[in-house]
Specification:
This protein has three helices and three strands; from the N terminus they run H-E-E-E-H-H. With 95 residues, the chain is of the alpha+beta class. A hairpin with a 2-residue loop joins strand 2 and strand 3. The chain starts with a helix and ends with a helix.
Length: 95
């Protein structure tokens, strides 16, 4: 669980981002989620940011670094809805 200072930092970043018209996503409870995904996803216009927030002395875990490294290489972002009937198209997209 993040310490109190990290929670305050998270709240501040979210507040400022929202005031600047960013769409903000934060997983409230990561229990059951895949390890390492960044704390915040911010979207505005043609920009999408994935940010892991840490205190000054906080350390990035190996899982967090793997996500950061993978996301830093992204050149294409696609978004959409997938239903069970879309499985053939989704499978082709994943291949």
């Amino acid at each position: 669980m993040p310490d109190k200072l990290e929670k305050v930092y998270l709240a501040s970043v979210k507040e400022v981002a929202q005031a600047l018209n960013w769409k903000v996503y934060h997983t409230l409870r990561s229990t059951g989620s895949d390890k390492g995904f960044p704390d915040l996803v911010l979207v505005r216009g043609d920009t999408c940011l994935f940010i892991e927030l840490k205190s000054e002395k906080g350390e990035v875990s190996a899982d967090q670094q793997e996500w950061i490294d993978a996301l830093a290489k992204v050149m294409v972002v696609k978004a959409g809805v997938a239903r069970p009937s879309d499985w053939p198209q989704l499978q082709r997209l994943l291949e």
